[in-house]
Design brief:
Thrombin, subunit H; 9-stranded mixed beta sheet
């Protein structure tokens, strides 16, 4: 299976640079994974696609202002860090620019010393491991010093940083938003629950892989990044009951999907747990956890495009993407949405 098999042509003007004014007014493509049939709606119509017996699972991770601009303590050279994941207490993996200037022992300071980062280890692809030094609460300091780490294909400044958070974001730790959830409003979620749909949450802190295309020619040779996930006892009980009763489990986003499939693969049921997942889902994978998926339109040759192709079939997905381009859907993080059912 070749990475080039998951390529498609996308005019650059279809890459959404800003969020739509009203979250739930984005467009919604419905794709039937069995027949390949496509229909066009708006996201607030999602309620018509949901049944009272369904369970809707969302990722409640919260994006931290993880992009920091500082200086090397000894030379005052400008350094940029993107905090990716906390390995242990105050030890973080960071994407570093320019990485060649940072060696073990180098100290980078931010905000005139409000935050300091000492390099503990050098890893590949511009990654460095830092120990953070500060007084007070880290996330409060990041609110002062950090910027939202928008993906590299977004070139416009975000006017309202809450628009790169879901309305239900709770657990701090992501370097990127779980963008399928950006379309929901609190009012829409309330209407969904009033219809009888059970809404529940998992956590997956989105990491570097979101920013990285597949660079190997053979898909199966791609090494997936690992991300921290968590499921509560309450969510596990809701999902096990739904499975037992043959009710649909609908994942909001590829991140949610990866949590649910990871746990089901490991335990053959849902259960309260946390850990790191590097699950890589591509065509040939047999889904055990989810029945349907709400997602955005993904980058060419990306692991996310491979995941949706595994669920709906590569031909169905590439045809749906051609249709989306023809109908001028908006693509990627701030773009429109698709429900695969």
């Amino acid at each position: 299976m070749k990475t080039d098999d998951f390529d498609y042509e996308l005019p650059s003007h279809l890459i959404a640079q800003t969020p739509i004014e009203k979250r739930d007014h984005s467009r919604l493509m419905i794709l039937d994974k069995t027949t390949g049939e496509i229909s066009h709606k708006y996201f607030h119509d999602i309620i018509e696609e949901l049944q009272p017996t369904d369970v809707l699972v969302l990722n409640n991770t919260k994006v931290i202002p993880a992009r920091l601009y500082g200086v090397k303590e000894e030379t005052n050279a400008a350094i940029e860090l993107l905090m990716l994941k906390e390995k242990e207490n105050n030890i973080w993996e960071c994407l570093t620019r320019p990485a060649k200037r940072i060696k073990v022992g180098t100290i980078v300071t931010f905000g005139n010393g409000l935050l300091k980062a000492e390099c503990m280890a050098e890893k590949e692809e511009g990654i460095r491991v830092f120990r953070l030094q500060y007084e007070g609460i880290l996330y409060e300091i990041l609110d002062q010093l950090g910027e939202m780490p928008l993906p590299p294909y977004i070139h416009q400044k975000l006017q309202d940083k809450t628009r790169y958070q879901t309305v239900y974001a709770k657990e701090e730790g992501s370097a990127a938003a779980p963008t399928a959830g950006l379309h929901f409003t609190k009012e829409l979620l309330q209407k969904i629950e009033e219809k009888g749909v059970q809404v529940t949450y998992v956590t997956l802190h989105v990491g570097l892989g979101t920013f990285r295309p597949v660079s190997v020619e053979d898909v199966t040779q791609h090494k997936m990044h690992s991300e921290f996930y968590q499921m509560t006892e309450t969510t596990a009980q809701i999902l096990n009951q739904a499975k037992k009763e043959g009710r649909r489990i609908i994942a909001v986003g590829t991140t949610t999907t990866r949590v649910l499939e990871t746990i089901m693969m490991q335990y053959h049921q849902f259960q309260a747990c946390s850990g790191w997942t590097d699950i890589f889902i591509y065509p040939g994978y047999s889904f055990q956890a989810i029945d349907a998926l709400i997602t955005n339109f993904h980058l060419p040759k990306s692991t996310l495009l491979m995941l949706v192709s595994a669920l709906a079939g590569k031909e169905n997905i590439l045809h749906a993407y051609q249709e989306a381009v023809k109908c001028e859907y908006r693509f990627f993080s701030f773009g429109d949405s698709m429900m695969i059912r």
